[in-house]
Design goal:
- There is one protein chain.
- It is built from 39 helices and 4 strands.
- It has 781 residues and is an all-alpha fold.
- The strands form 2 sheets. A two-stranded antiparallel ribbon has the order 1-2. It has a two-stranded antiparallel sheet with strand order 3-4.
- β3 and β4 form a beta hairpin.
- The chain is elongated and about 120 Å long.
- The N and C termini lie far apart (86 Å).
């Protein structure tokens, strides 16, 4: 089907873009996740643009495009100012000095060493040798042999200035300084400037003087010095130091409330001075349309105006398309257009290739382009690309055509994207390296298209995903795997497969953090499929279907145990094959342990797996009820054992693993925020079994049904412990578990402690507990 353009087709594309965006941000209903996740990691988004489709080492590339930490390692971490300065010194001395020697003299030599070089330089008979430490320094030798006293005097003066002009912040910011001394140095520098013949050295004196005034915070004086000194210097030979001065001038003008003049000069520094380009980019500031028009009015030609638009487009994507259109009008072949186009597409990637699962895993991030206007922004960018291609003015038309297809892919128009990729591919000359890179890029975008075409409602979608993972292009970009996980997870959720949705995006351990029956039931259905590829590749166990099914059934049964649904748990456990049941982990929840250690070696002779534990609890329940019917006090003992098992299998018991696959000790410090706690790599956080009300109810039944003071004391003590843990878990509790202080319980939470002390203080059990439990001893006092 074809649509008219721009009116009909643009509406379709915009609708597709909105549909894709809404699809990506929808997810299956789930329990509310705690709003604050201390484990969240910063995440900017996925990118499927290869850095080699453009010149990623272009001068402006570090400011507009992003590829992992490439520019941090190869650009921003370098001291470009030092590199340029050393190279300029070498150039002024006919490229004869060794760079390391120049670096030492300019940046590391002390006053005494510089003075010794000067002494040697003024010795016309050359009888005064350099000190031993400088005897092999080529730059020092050149200064001394050629009698370069003006250079040496400047280096000594610069060394004196350095402590007062150490760069802070962005390189041109104000700092607390010794202003009187700095003013004295300015006067000294002006005198030396006047007495110096070399214009190369005069420019550097001027730079030191202007820099001192800037850091002294006297903005008008900075401007006056610049205007006074610069006309007195012959600048026929270009020097980076001039732009260093311009940067300080711009900073002073900005502080004086002249933003347009400052922004214009920052743009000059950005354009011509690599060593100060980063500072200029960060300092460039336009606050409103009036300042923008005033800055444009200062430009001398279209090239300068284009630089302003490049700076604005690269710094804020809110005007990116408009600025690119203007740059194109001023200079259709401007090489920065390719960079700006890539930069803008990368911003759109972060929005359209982001799902709800991505936000759950990494936290929500607002891109530079607001999400609400993303579809309109994408459509405007497509119109610009269409215009550029139709006029045939692009410097790299094949790149623009390929990116046109990628934007169509992001907008959800995969048919149009496929056609654009085909047209771009026919224009490529595979014998050219650049075209080879672009062909590889298109191939990667086709892999992305395959991922976006995955339909979980189809029978073999898991096999398709497995095939996609085998592509070499898929393996070349690590973002593919993570995006595939997020996309599949979102698609599975939309297709009512919550289990597959979690397993597609998270490790299998996530199933046990906060178990959900709908998730486990969905995976159990998947385990019965003829070829359960997803389970076999993600469960990290043997691909034996009985083993996978047994693991899922045991997780489901453990969850039902934690909910007190023992009959349902037993039914679940009985579905596990005898062979797999024999491999189940064993526990000992019926053992009396009265200290608070939750991790201990098992020493009991009665070790039971989860199915046997449930059977034992149900057996005790049946015997207790039968004994009650006969008014037999032995019922109390059975109730006590059931309560003991529930407590021991709770978060606070040593056999917590019987009902929980993950326990965080850190949550002990924030029980009141539970029972669900934030946890990385879990879509729903981590649920802890901190509810001990069920155990408390059985201890109460044991207490009321027993005639034995000793059993009553035991039941009362554990009931008191349950009440204490309930108080720890209340939102209004100020006491924090782990404190060395004895918790002072409110009256309604110390019922059983009071009962134990008042009624059972003479029992043997009480005497034993007073010795072992400091809390009980304190309450007794």
């Amino acid at each position: 089907m074809r649509f008219t353009y721009p009116s009909g087709r643009s509406k379709i594309i915009q609708a597709c873009a909105l549909t894709v965006f809404l699809t990506l941000t929808s997810f299956f209903p789930k329990p509310p996740t705690p709003p604050c996740n201390p484990f969240a990691r910063p995440f900017s988004g996925y990118t499927f643009i290869r850095p080699d489709i453009i010149n990623r080492n272009a001068a402006y590339a570090p400011f507009f495009v992003q590829w992992d930490d490439y520019y941090d390692r190869n650009y921003f971490s370098r001291d470009i100012q030092k590199e340029e300065n050393i190279n300029e010194w070498i150039g002024r001395f006919c490229d004869q000095a060794d760079p390391k020697d120049v670096e030492y003299i300019v940046y590391k030599a002390g006053f005494s060493e510089l003075a010794s070089i000067r002494t040697s330089a003024v010795d016309t008979k050359k009888l005064t040798p350099l000190p031993a430490g400088l005897s092999r320094n080529t730059f020092a030798e050149m200064l001394a042999l050629n009698g370069c006293t003006e250079v040496i005097d400047y280096l000594i003066f610069a060394k004196k200035c350095e402590p007062y002009v150490v760069t802070n912040g962005d390189g041109w910011t104000q700092a607390d300084r010794d202003v009187p001394t700095m003013l004295q140095l300015i006067e000294e520098g002006r005198g030396r400037f006047k007495d110096t013949d070399s214009h190369f050295v005069k420019l550097r004196y001027a730079y030191q003087i202007v820099r001192l005034a800037h850091y002294a915070g006297d903005w008008k004086y900075t401007v006056d010095l610049y205007n006074f000194l610069l006309p007195k210097i012959d600048r026929q030979k270009a020097s980076i130091v001039f732009y260093w001065m311009v940067g300080h001038l711009a900073g002073a003008l900005q502080q004086m409330g002249q933003p347009a003049e400052a922004a214009y000069r920052y743009s000059l520094v950005f354009r011509y001075c690599p060593s100060k380009r980063t500072q200029a980019f960060r300092s460039f500031k336009i606050r409103n349309d009036a300042e923008w028009k005033a800055t444009l009015a200062l430009c001398q030609n279209d090239a300068e105006r284009a630089t302003l638009y490049v700076l604005r487009a690269g710094g804020s994507h809110s005007h990116a398309v408009e600025d690119m259109q203007t740059i194109y009008d001023l200079d259709p072949k401007n090489p920065q257009l390719d960079l700006l186009l890539i930069s803008d597409v990368q911003q759109l990637e972060k929005i359209f290739l982001r799902t709800r699962v991505t936000d759950q895993k990494h936290g929500t991030v607002q891109g530079m382009v607001q999400r609400e206007g993303a579809a309109t922004h994408l459509l405007d960018l497509q119109k610009l690309i269409s215009r550029v291609l139709s006029e045939g003015q692009a410097a790299n038309p094949t790149l623009w055509r390929a990116l046109s297809g990628y934007l169509e892919l992001l907008a959800g128009d995969r048919y149009a994207a496929d056609k654009s990729f085909q047209r771009a591919s026919t224009l490529l000359d595979k014998s050219k390296t650049d075209d080879q890179h672009l062909a590889e890029q298109i191939a990667e975008w086709r892999i992305l298209m395959e991922i976006l075409n995955l339909d979980p409602s189809r029978e073999y979608v898991d096999q398709q995903a497995f095939r996609i993972r085998s592509y070499e292009g898929f393996k070349a970009n690590p973002d593919f795997e993570y995006f595939l996980q997020d996309w599949l997870s979102t698609a599975y959720a939309a297709a009512a497969h919550p289990g597959k949705a979690i397993l597609a995006a998270y490790p299998p351990s996530a199933l046990g953090y906060n178990p959900r029956l709908d998730v486990l039931n969905d995976l159990l259905k998947a385990a019965d499929e003829p070829d359960p590829v997803l389970l076999e590749t993600t469960m990290e166990i043997d691909t034996n279907p009985d083993q996978i099914r047994a693991r899922l059934l045991e997780m489901k049964g453990a969850f039902l145990m934690s909910q007190g649904e023992m009959e349902a748990a037993l039914t679940t456990f009985r579905k596990i094959t005898p062979i797999e049941a024999s491999k189940m982990v064993r526990f000992s929840p019926f053992k009396e342990v009265f200290d608070e250690k939750v991790n201990r070696p098992l020493t009991d002779t009665l070790l039971l797996n989860r199915r046997q534990i449930v059977e034992q609890i149900l057996t005790y329940e049946f015997k207790a009820k039968a004994a009650e019917a006969e008014q037999n006090p032995v019922a109390a003992w059975y109730y006590y054992l059931i309560g003991l098992s529930y407590y021991n299998m709770s978060y606070f018991g040593y056999e917590w693993e019987a009902m929980d696959y993950y326990r965080s000790g850190y949550n002990w410090l924030r029980l009141a925020q539970g029972p669900e706690f934030p946890l990385r790599n879990s879509p729903d956080g981590n649920r802890e079994n901190i509810d001990v009300s069920r155990a408390l109810s059985y201890f109460e039944r044991a207490l009321h049904g027993t005639q034995s003071p000793e059993l009553a004391a035991r039941a009362t003590f554990l009931a008191a412990r349950c009440q204490q843990k309930q108080w720890f878990s209340q939102p209004d509790t100020r006491y924090r578990p782990g404190s060395k202080l004895i918790p002072t319980l409110p009256d309604n939470y110390r019922t059983y402690y009071d009962l134990l002390i008042s009624k059972y203080a003479k029992t043997e059990f009480y005497g034993q507990m007073v010795k072992e439990c400091k809390w009980l001893e304190a309450y007794g006092r």
